[in-house]
C-alpha cells in the first residue's frame, strides 16, 4: 500500500473570465522511504497539487479526485478537526518562503513549541528540550539562544532551518518540500539539501521534493513526475528520465540545463519546445 495515493486530481479557481484549471487530472503515489520529485516550470501546478493534499487552498477552490488516500485512509472527505490532527503531525510541508511562512510576532521557539504542544501534548519543560534538540539536529548554532529570536533576527538560511525543524518536529511519515532552496544562495542550498536528505534517510519518511531545478532532481530523487500547465507529462525513475526522456517537454527542460549548452548561450524551453506536448507517458 502506497503511503500517499492520488488519482486524477483536478483543482480549479474561479476567475473573472470563468474557471481556471490549475491542476488537470494528475495522479501520483509515494511509498514509505521514497523521494519523489515533482518538476516543472513556474505555473505548472506543482505547489497547488500539494496544497490541495494539505487542505491549504482557499475554500473557493474546486478540488476533485477519484482517490486521495494517506496510508489507505480517505483524506479528501475528512472533517476539519481530523485534518488538523493529521497535518503537521503525519504530513508536514516546508514552504517556499521561510521568512514569510513564520509568524513575525512570535519567537521561533514559541512557534516550534506550539506544534509540540498541539500534536504531542508535551509539557513546557519537555517542549523546550525537544525544541533545542530539533534546532541542534538541523544545524542551528546556539539553539538555546535561538529559541528566543524572532524571524527578522535570523538569516534566510536560518529561517529555512527553523521551518525544517518545525516540519519534522513530530516525526512525520510524509514531508513535502516546496522549492526549499529557491531563496537561498548556492552554498546554503547545498547545506539545506544535504540536511533534508540526511533527515529523510534517518527517519525513513516519504519525501516529495517540488522543484524546477533538474540538478536537484538528479541529486535527490528516486522517481520523478514532470508537470506542464497542470498536466502530468511523464513519470519515471530518475535514471530513466535523464537517460531516455519520453516527453518533448522533459527533453526541453534537460536541454535548458547549463551543461547542455552548445555555443555561447543556453537553449530556452520555448525554443526547444514550440509545439503542444504529447500525451502522458508513464514508465516504471
Automatic annotation (TrEMBL):
Membrane topology qualifier: Peripheral membrane protein
Keyword terms: ATP-binding, Cell membrane, Membrane, Nucleotide-binding, Transport
Subcellular location per the Swiss-Prot or TrEMBL entry: Cell inner membrane
Chain ranges passing through the membrane: none
Gene Ontology MF terms: ATP binding; ATP hydrolysis activity
Gene Ontology cellular-component annotations: plasma membrane
Primary site of residence: membrane
Any one GO biological process: transmembrane transport
All copies of domain ABC transporter, residue ranges: 4-254
Matching InterPro entries: AAA+_ATPase (IPR003593), ABC_Ni/Peptide_Import (IPR050388), ABC_transporter-like_ATP-bd (IPR003439), ABC_transporter-like_CS (IPR017871), P-loop_NTPase (IPR027417)
Family: Belongs to the ABC transporter superfamily.
Descriptive protein name: Dipeptide transport system ATP-binding protein
Amino acid at each position: 500500500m502506497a503511503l500517499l495515493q492520488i488519482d486524477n486530481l483536478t483543482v480549479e479557481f474561479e476567475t473573472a473570465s470563468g474557471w481556471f484549471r490549475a491542476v488537470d487530472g494528475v495522479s501520483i503515489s509515494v511509498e514509505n522511504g521514497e523521494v519523489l520529485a515533482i518538476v516543472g516550470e513556474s505555473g505548472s501546478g506543482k505547489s497547488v497539487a500539494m496544497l490541495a493534499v494539505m487542505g491549504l487552498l482557499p475554500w473557493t477552490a474546486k478540488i476533485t479526485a477519484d482517490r486521495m488516500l494517506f496510508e489507505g485512509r480517505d483524506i479528501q472527505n475528512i472533517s476539519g478537526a481530523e485534518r488538523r490532527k493529521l497535518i503537521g503531525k503525519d504530513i508536514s510541508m516546508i514552504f517556499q518562503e521561510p521568512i514569510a511562512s513564520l509568524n513575525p510576532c512570535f519567537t521561533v521557539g514559541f512557534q516550534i513549541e506550539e506544534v509540540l504542544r498541539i500534536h504531542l501534548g508535551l509539557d513546557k519543560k519537555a517542549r523546550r528540550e525537544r525544541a533545542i534538540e530539533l534546532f541542534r539536529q538541523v544545524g542551528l548554532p546556539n539553539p538555546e539562544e535561538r529559541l528566543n529570536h524572532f524571524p527578522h533576527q535570523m538569516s534566510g538560511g536560518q529561517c529555512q532551518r527553523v521551518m525544517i525543524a518545525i516540519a519534522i518536529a513530530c516525526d512525520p511519515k510524509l514531508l513535502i518540500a516546496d522549492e526549499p532552496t529557491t531563496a537561498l544562495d548556492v552554498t546554503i542550498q547545498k547545506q539545506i539539501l544535504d540536511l533534508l536528505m540526511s533527515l529523510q534517510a534517518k527517519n525513513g519518511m516519504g519525501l516529495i521534493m517540488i522543484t524546477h531545478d533538474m540538478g536537484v532532481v538528479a541529486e535527490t530523487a528516486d522517481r520523478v513526475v514532470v508537470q506542464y500547465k497542470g498536466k502530468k507529462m511523464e513519470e519515471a525513475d530518475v535514471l530513466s528520465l535523464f537517460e531516455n526522456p519520453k516527453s518533448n517537454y522533459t527533453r526541453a527542460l534537460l536541454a535548458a540545463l547549463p551543461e547542455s549548452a552548445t555555443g555561447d548561450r543556453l537553449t530556452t524551453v520555448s525554443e526547444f519546445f514550440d509545439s503542444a506536448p504529447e500525451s502522458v507517458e508513464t514508465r516504471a
